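Hey, can you fold this?
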Amino acid sequence: MQGNLPPEAQEKIEQLQDLQETAQQVAVQKQETESSLTEAQTAQKELEDIDEETTMYRQVGDLLVETDYDTAEDDLDEQVDSLEIRLETLEKQEERVQDQFEGLQEELEELLGGAGGGMGGPAGPGGPGAGGA
C-alpha cells in the first residue's frame, strides 16, 4: 500500500516508525532507571538500620572493597540523586517524542486528506474506524 502513497506521506510514515522505535528505547531506559532507583532507595533505607560501626563493603567491578558508613551513605545519596535526574530527563524525552509523534501523525493525516480514513498505522490505538469525520 505504501507504494501508492505520495513521497511526502511515505517520508512521514518512516519518521513515525523511527519515533516509535525511539519511544520504545526511551521506555526501556526509563524502566531500567526506575528499577535502579528503587534498588538504591531500598539500600538507603536499609543503611538507616545499620550501626555506623559495622564493616561495610561496596562493589567495584568484580571486587568488594571495604568502605565506611559515611562513604557508603554519600555514595548512595549521590546515586539516588543521579538516578532521579536521569528519570526526570527520560520522562521529558518521552513527552517530546510523544508530542513529535502526534504532530507527525496530524501532518500525515492532512497530507492524505481524509483518504486514509481507517489509518491506524504506527499510532496503534487509533486503528481502523477510530477516526473519521
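Oh, and this one too while you're at it.
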Amino acid sequence: MTKIAYDRKEQLQQIESGLLPGEQIIAVYDAIGAGTGFLGLTDKRVIVQDKSFVGKRVALTSIPYDKVSAVSVVSNRSFAGSFFSSGAIAIHVGTHTYEVEFRGDDKAHHVHNVILHFITTG
C-alpha cells in the first residue's frame, strides 16, 4: 500500500470512515482560512470539509472527478516567479467554485496535479 500524505490523523480518519468499497486515499491536507477545514483526495473524488454553514454546522462535500470542470492555481502575486507561488487552488464544479488554501505551495501543487490528472484522463 502506498503511503498517504496527510497533515492531521483525525482528518485522515474522517475520510477513511466514509470510503466507498475499493476506494483509495491519495492525500488529506489541512486547509487554512475561513470556511474550509480540510481537503481529501481519493482515486474517485475530491472531499472538501466546509465549515461555512450557519450555526457551526459542517458539511463534508464529495466531488466526483468527472464533475470538476477546471482546477486553478490562485495567486495574489505575479506569476513571474513560479507557477505555484501560492498555496491556494480553486476547484470549479458547475457554477460553484471551492477555494482551498494550504500551508505551503507544495500541497497546492500536489492537489492541483492529482485533480488535473483525474479530470484529463477521466
